[in-house]
């Protein structure tokens, strides 16, 4: 069987060792000759690569590992690129969360103004990555992208590099399916779902096991317990953090109001922004929880490994690692397996714009995702989706044109922002915080007045 060269962009990510374990568990399906780690922060990446190498060594000594900050070294002749860049790292994530909260607005890394801010940082580096891959990698190479905010990244790529072979994915649908399966007492792989929406903005409409729709049963469970079982150890360790438990419990709040479908957990930010702000700690957000938890543990584990040769964390990353490997195997072997991913609408949901980057079940082939027909969606969902879509599309226009006015329109259209006045105040604070990362936003009509 052919052996592949895989590059990981954002090799210094906290997810890297876990993704490597998922890859090692699946070497029979995706044989690898080389793994190349690429990051702009070489020092951070080198520490993470220590852990990645230790995981690889548990399986094989025949994979060449390269740790580099040079794009040519990373991407030359590569078959696949996994992208997981966090532009601005946790320092800026913390500001994306805390600046909106200081205005009593949702502070979240991918939803609301924080997500828009992260989008303004990420489009240019993502396009740079695509151009490196185009220049150096194989013509058939695919970028499988986790880098957030995935919805805005998907729209930016669609607009600026429409022919690029980029598959944008998110682990939230599959993580939600993991919880559903635990509730139903079945394996996640037995569950077949229908789902529609945008990334971090969608609904499950059917939860089928052995040809029978179990949504009614799950709805009943959610009414009592949210989207959790008694035994939270059945969900991956990351989602066992208190903030994630709160999120899965909040699904009850959403379904108490809108019981028709099962929502993506991220809809809590758009439907209940007031509740989210009231229950947030403005001084200690998810970024702090991650820095004090996952990030700290990773670097301590590496330090101890270097001292003792013992790897104390197994880095079992769960659905996050499994999912990116699953879709990549489906591309590599042209399996056409059905997964929920981002793809261009083109009539899949006829009553949404053809050029929307939607999130739906699609068959994953060597030529990319082939979405399954969904059909028209009811007005409530269509209206919500179109408002969010407009916010994201206008944000991408703001980035391309360097337009302050469009950025303000994008912020104002975001459902988490209560008024144009608040949108402007949050945007202006975020501009100051992101001056090293954002494109310059010019005021077309009033600059210099
Ligand atoms: P992290 O900060 O630990 O790692 C990100 C790495 O990206 C850092 O080492 C950083 O130096 C690097 N980086 C930043 N800009 C870069 C650039 N221009 N080129 C190359 N590398 C660059 O972050 P993390 O929490 O491990 O998350 C990694 C990414 O995965 C984030 O974008 C996060 O939002 C995303 N993520 C997405 C999903 C999903 O569902 N789509 C799930 C989990 C994580
Ligand atoms: C989920 C989402 C991702 C997001 C991640 C954040 O998995 O699908 O898009 O990046 O959560 O998790 P964290 O543990 O970093 O808060
Ligand atoms: Mn996601």
Topology (SSEs and partners):
Layout: E1 4-9, H1 16-25, E2 32-38, H2 42-57, E3 64-68, H3 71-75, E4 80-83, H4 89-102, H5 112-136, E5 142-145, H6 150-160, E6 166-168, H7 172-184, E7 191-198, E8 201-209, E9 212-213, H8 215-225, H9 242-257, E10 262-263, H10 267-271, H11 273-278, H12 286-308, H13 319-332, E11 337-344, E12 357-365, E13 368-371, H14 379-401, H15 404-413, H16 420-433
Parallel strand pairs: 1-2, 1-4, 2-3, 4-5, 5-6
Antiparallel strand pairs: 7-8, 8-9, 8-10, 11-12, 12-13
Helix pairs in contact: 1-2, 1-13, 2-12, 4-5, 4-12, 4-16, 5-6, 5-14, 6-14, 8-9, 14-15, 15-16
The structure holds nicotinamide-adenine-dinucleotide, 6-O-phosphono-alpha-D-glucopyranose (G6P) and manganese (II) ion.
Residues 9-10, 12-15, 39-41, 44-45, 84-87, 89-90, 125, 146-148, 150, 170-172, 320 line the site of nicotinamide-adenine-dinucleotide.
How would you describe this protein?
InterPro entries: Glyco_hydro_4 (IPR001088), Glyco_hydro_4_C (IPR022616), Lactate_DH/Glyco_Ohase_4_C (IPR015955), NAD(P)-bd_dom_sf (IPR036291). This is 6-phospho-alpha-glucosidase. Keywords: Cobalt, Glycosidase, Hydrolase, Iron, Manganese, Metal-binding, NAD, Nickel. Belongs to the glycosyl hydrolase 4 family. It is a single chain. The chain has 449 residues and is of the alpha/beta class. The chain has a domain of 165 residues: NAD(P)-binding Rossmann-like Domain (Rossmann fold), CATH 3.40.50.720. It is 48% helix and 16% strand. The chain is built from 16 helices and 13 strands. A six-stranded parallel β-sheet has the order 3-2-1-4-5-6, sandwiched between helices. Strands 7, 8, 9 and 10 form a four-stranded antiparallel β-sheet that branches. The model has no long low-confidence stretch (mean pLDDT 97). The site of 6-O-phosphono-alpha-D-glucopyranose has 9 residues, from helix 7 and helix 12.
């Amino acid at each position: 069987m052919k052996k592949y060269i895989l590059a990981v962009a954002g090799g210094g990510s906290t997810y890297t060792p876990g993704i490597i374990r998922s890859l090692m568990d699946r070497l029979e399906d995706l044989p690898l000759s080389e793994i190349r780690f690429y990051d702009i922060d070489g020092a951070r990446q080198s520490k993470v690569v220590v852990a990645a190498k230790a995981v690889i060594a548990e399986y094989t000594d025949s994979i060449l590992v390269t740790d580099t900050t040079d794009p040519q070294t990373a991407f030359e002749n590569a078959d696949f690129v996994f992208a997981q860049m966090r532009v601005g790292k946790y320092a800026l994530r913390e500001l994306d969360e805390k600046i909106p909260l200081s205005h009593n607005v949702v502070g979240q890394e991918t939803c609301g103004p924080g997500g828009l801010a992260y989008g303004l940082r990420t489009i240019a580096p993502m396009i740079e990555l695509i151009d490196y891959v185009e220049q150096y990698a194989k013509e058939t190479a695919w970028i499988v992208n986790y880098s957030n905010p995935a919805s805005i990244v998907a729209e930016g790529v669609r607009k600026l590099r429409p022919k690029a072979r980029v598959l944008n994915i998110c682990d939230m649908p599959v993580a939600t399916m993991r919880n559903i399966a635990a509730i139903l007492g079945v394996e996640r792989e037995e569950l077949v779902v229908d789902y529609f929406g945008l990334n971090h903005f969608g609904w499950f409409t059917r939860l089928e096991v052995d040809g029978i729709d179990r949504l009614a049963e799950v709805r009943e469970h959610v009414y009592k317990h949210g989207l959790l079982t008694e035994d939270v150890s059945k969900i991956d360790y990351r989602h066992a953090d208190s903030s994630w438990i709160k999120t899965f419990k909040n699904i009850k709040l959403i379904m108490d109001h809108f019981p028709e479908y099962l929502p993506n957990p991220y809809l809590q930010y758009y439907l209940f922004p007031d509740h989210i702000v009231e229950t947030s700690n403005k001084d200690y957000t998810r970024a702090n929880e991650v820095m004090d938890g996952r990030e700290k543990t990773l670097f301590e584990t590496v330090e101890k490994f270097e001292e003792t040769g013992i790897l104390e964390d197994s880095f079992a990353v769960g659905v996050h690692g499994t999912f990116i490997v699953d879709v990549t195997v489906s591309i590599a072997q042209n399996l056409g397996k059905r997964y929920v991913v981002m793809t261009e609408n083109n009539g899949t949901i006829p009553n949404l714009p053809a050029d929307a980057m939607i999130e739906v079940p699609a068959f994953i082939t060597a030529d990319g995702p082939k979405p399954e027909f969904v059909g028209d969606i009811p007005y409530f969902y269509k209206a919500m989706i179109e408002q969010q879509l407009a916010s994201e599309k206008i944000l991408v226009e703001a980035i391309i044109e360097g337009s302050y006015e469009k950025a303000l329109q994008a912020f104002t259209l975001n459902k988490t922002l209560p008024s144009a006045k608040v949108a402007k105040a949050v945007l202006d604070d975020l501009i100051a915080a992101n001056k090293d990362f954002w494109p310059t936003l010019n005021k077309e009509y009033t600059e210099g007045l």
